[in-house]
Amino acid sequence: MKFQSLFTLAISLPMAFACKKDAKPTGTYETAEFHRDCTGAYLRWKDKDYKICNAESVASFTGNTSVEVIFHEVNNCTGTGNFQITCDLYHPYVNYIEVEAIK
Fold first, then answer.
1. Over the stretch 9-22, which tens digit does the pLDDT of each residue have?
2. Is residue 67 part of a domain?
3. 72, CA 20 to 30 Å: which among 19, 41, 47, 103?
4. Count of the separate structural domains present in the chain
5. What does pTM read for this prediction?
6. Which domain holds residue 98?
7. Are 45 and 95 in contact (CB under 8 A)?
8. Which string of DSSP letters, residue by residue, matches 60-99?
9. What span, in angstroms and rounded, lies between the C-alpha atoms of 38 and 25?
């Protein structure tokens, strides 16, 4: 009986710590301008545009809006912001970013 209890504890303890927790945003909020056009969603920060890789995080935002945002640059975008552009507009940007939190 004692062995069974220890075995159960040994199996269940690592699983309790393996569960994914909701990550809190790291960093500080920065003031930026949110822009959206047919080429994607962008943040204008310090007079430079950054294309948002995880576009689903800003789905509720429209137009030219001032936002408070925590983000970080990414070198390889595999998110929803990296799609085939279907319009003739050219929108230059510095790099891709991922938004951690936005308000």
1. 455 545 554 544 45
2. yes
3. 19
4. 1
5. 0.73
6. 30-102
7. no
8. T--SSEEEEEEEEEESS--STT-----SS-----S-EEEE
9. 29
